[in-house]
Amino acid sequence: MEDILDNLYSLSAKSIRPSPIREMLHLVRKPGMISFAGGMPDPDIFPVEQFQQAASIISREGKDILQYGTTEGYPPLKEFLAEWTAPKMGRKLLPEELLITTGSSQVIDLLCWALLDRGDWVICEEPTFLGATGTMYNHGARFLTVPCDSEGMKVELLPDLIERALASGNRIKFIYTIVNFHNPLGCDLSLERRKRLLEIASTYGIMILEDDPYGWVRFEGEEVQSLFSMDEQGLVVFASSFSKILAPGTRVAWCAGNSEIIRKMAVFKQGTDTCTSVVVQAIVWEYCRLGHLDSFLPRIVSHYRDKRDGMEAALLKYMPAERVYWQKPKGGFFYWISAPGIPAEELLKRAVEKKVAFVPGKAFYPTGTGGRDDFRMCFTFASPEMTDLGVKKLSEAISEFE
Ligand SMILES: Cc1ncc(COP(=O)(O)O)c(C=O)c1O
Fold first, then answer.
1. CA torsion, ordered 69, 70, 75, 78, to nearest 10 deg
2. Are 99 and 262 in contact (CB under 8 A)?
3. What is the pLDDT of residues 338-362, one digit of tens each?
4. Start-to-end C-alpha separation, the chain
5. Beta-carbon-side half-sphere exposure of residue 70 (alpha carbons within 13 Å)
6. Ligand 1 near 247 CB (within 6 A)
7. What angle do CA 210, 305, 393 make, to 5 degrees?
8. Is 129 in the pocket of ligand 1 (CB under 6 A)?
């Protein structure tokens, strides 16, 4: 069978890459493991009762919502999102500017279908969310990467990078950026840089994918205007999701963009899943309509703020200050830790023996050339006690390195 399949596989299938994190999650699901690895919400803060109440929409509307739906999304949910996102989007979205998707992972996939030919280039931050670059890679993307500092992507490097790529005949299709509480860095793209990024995209006629699943999970500080709200040319596709503000098991997410690109993405979606589960979209809508999104979200944010504070306290308590560095994130799910001279993959082996897991930084580098001594820790999943114990064990593993 293997021989037959080897003859039949597409070029894409032959070069496809599984997500190292998904693969790793099998390892860390071992009993007793304290996992800071996956970017997972805390199940203790899932609004189970409120969601169950919202599910009563099935008895009211079952005959409609158990039917196939429109590919673009369940209209009442779209209407709700158009209103709810208006402050962030700078205006109320039109229905044709909105597409409901199966996770925001699907937004990335659909945009790749719409824009990429094999060998085209995508610009992204380095490090970045490897789920996104994995999908792009599967579509044949090549990567131009831009380093980051505490204000996010160093956009001042872009013109030179783009000029050089264009001079060698490459086609650059879009810039992928995680603007708020970056995965894995935890930082925000500053307003100045957002404005400059838009100017650059406009100068070179490149689209931007503004990926923002964490922006609603802000613990402190002022919200920075979205790229979408400042975009006058329709170059920005904005993506967000219910995964971090309700529950990832809903697989309900959305994107906003100019009606032309949204239409193209919707046509690709027809062939992918026809539509996102109508029954789940309807329950999510009912949950929102009953006011649970607005009343429960502050509880989620406050819960994760406490967890962030717990990890910060544990890091300060146990980590050797002269060897380990980090910046306290103001929102989102992640700490990015740097331990110069300590290879994170080696550290992980020692840590796993002590039943602690994280993700080594290299996994987030699409070019595979950085992050050797860095790693990502998710602070939302483990309980406060486990966070304290896990960081303690990790610091013991670190102290084993000369
Ligand atoms: C930056 C970023 N974008 C997109 C996603 C995908 O989220 P979803 O569950 O909506 O597919 C994630 C998930 O962790 C993420 O971190």
1. 120
2. yes
3. 999 999 999 999 999 999 999 999 9
4. 49
5. 13
6. no
7. 105
8. yes
Q: What distance in Å separates the CA atoms of residue 111 and residue 356, rounded to the nearest whole number?
A: 36
Measured distance CA(208)–CA(227) in Å, rounded: 9
Mean pLDDT of 283-295: 98
For 135, list phi and psi in degrees, rounded to 5.
-60, -45
Query: Which strand (E) or helix (H) includes residue 361?
Result: none
Return d(Cα 265, Cα 106) in angstroms, integer: 10
Shortest-distance atom of ligand 1 to CA 178: 1
Check pocket membership of 108 for ligand 1, CB cut-off 6 A.
no
Model pLDDT, residue 23: 67
Q: In order of start, what are the domains of the chain with their CATH numbers?
A: 2-47+295-399 (3.90.1150.10), 48-291 (3.40.640.10)
Q: State the residue for tokens 């400042």.
A: 230
Using alpha carbons, list the distances in angstroms from residue 60 to 63, 65, 288, 291, 357. Answer: 8, 10, 16, 18, 45
Read off the tokens for 93: 């979205």
Q: Ramachandran region of residue 5, left (φ > 0), alpha (ψ -120 to 50) or beta?
A: alpha
Closest-lying ligand 1 atom to the alpha carbon of residue 101: 10
pTM of the model: 0.96
Q: In Å, how far are 48, 70, 201, 246, 383 from 56, measured between CA atoms? A: 13, 22, 46, 17, 31
Q: What is the DSSP letter of 226?
A: P
Q: Which of 203, 152, 158, 208 is nearest to 181 (CA)?
A: 152
- Please tell me if the CB atom of residue 41 comes closer than 6 angstroms to any atom of ligand 1: no
**Token digits of residue 284:** 């999510």
> Does the structure show a pLDDT above 80 at 20?
no
Atom 14 in ligand 1: which residue has the minimum CA distance? 39
